[in-house]
Amino acid sequence: MTSVATQTDECGDAAHRLYAAELRRWRQERGVTQERLAALTHYSAALVGMVEKLQRNPTREFTSRCDDVLRTGGALARLLPLLAAESYPSWFRPFVEMEAEATAIQEFEVQVIAGLLQTEDYARAVLNSWPPKSAEEIERRLAARLDRQRILDRADPPLLSFVLDESVLRRPMGPASMMAAQLTHLIETAARPNIQLQILTFEQARDAPTDGAFVVLELPQRERVLYVEGVGNGRLVPDEEIVDRFARAFSAAQCQALSMADSIAFIEMVRRERYGCE
């Protein structure tokens, strides 16, 4: 009997082979060498070759440039969702599917900035932490994480509510310039009308929930689901009583946290004082 892991690996290989074959086909149809495509897209010829040999995962930006240069009509971009879906761990895929459909998302984070709010550099640094991963695996998961952020630009985006512990802002996942850029991105993203972002400071945290990070999703039929993550895995909890307890915990965290305006001022203060950026 074939295991789920084996099926996933086979599907992932198939999707990457399809992308590589399509890139090669379009390139050859247009009479463009790898070196010429690299020059026109401002990438290295080595990178183009690695993508075609399944040694490097294509990013959204790489794909967009190739589609433009090769005049594919978006053929390569249409393959990205297949690649992204297969890049998630099997235990995480059900959550991603529900997240994409959610009408409201409440997320409480205590260690790192929420994935939907991460910059590319910050996300890469997070993925490069324990456990160790190959460069290829990091790039594959990075592309998938950035793909999740497409829900922010949906025609009908969900109502997103975030409460971030102060430690999330102060924990340096990389150089000061990267962290400053990430905090700037938080400030800019929080300006969207469907996003509520609040910071739970150290002084306020003593009266806040201590259950760790969690996400409450509200789906189109008003069904609610809880997602909690542990070391190396995560699980969805549909039990309404448990979901309600965590939803109330999130409301308590919102009450204890700074207001949205004060949260933005606090982020600006941390960016300036800790990371040296005005």
Automatic annotation (TrEMBL):
InterPro entries given in the database record: Cro/C1-type_HTH (IPR001387), DUF5753 (IPR043917), Lambda_DNA-bd_dom_sf (IPR010982)
Gene Ontology MF terms in the entry: DNA binding
SMART domains in UniProt: HTH_XRE
Family annotation (CDD domains): HTH_XRE (cd00093)
Xref: PROSITE patterns: HTH_CROC1
Domain HTH cro/C1-type: 23-59
Any Pfam family hit: DUF5753
Name of this protein: Transcriptional regulator
Species per Swiss-Prot/TrEMBL record: Actinocatenispora sera
